[in-house]
Amino acid sequence: MLEFVPMPLIDDFLLKYNVGQVLLLAFVLSVVAAIPLGSRKVLSLNAITFGLLFVVVPSSLAPLHYKFLGIALLVVAPVLYVTARK
């Protein structure tokens, strides 16, 4: 009996990408999902969360430039949070 197992297909697809690229895609998708809310505070909290994730991820899983992106997000996002009205 031949059975369809999707896990090897997903695994082969994900092996082409590193954790930094997956986190970047998740960050972009979450920003797009938060835009209809119309709240800069939600966007800045999202950026702070992903900034922490980019900084905490070990450098063996993601290249160094993702750490720099995380540091930039951790600098810019709190400023956006403080200046946001809602």
Automatic annotation (TrEMBL):
The keyword Membrane applies. Residues 5-86 form the DUF8006 domain. The chain crosses the membrane at residues 20-38, 45-62, 68-84. It holds the Pfam family DUF8006. InterPro entries: DUF8006 (IPR058319). Keywords: Membrane, Transmembrane, Transmembrane helix. This is DUF8006 domain-containing protein. It comes from Halorussus aquaticus. The lineage of its organism: Archaea, Methanobacteriati, Methanobacteriota, Stenosarchaea group, Halobacteria.
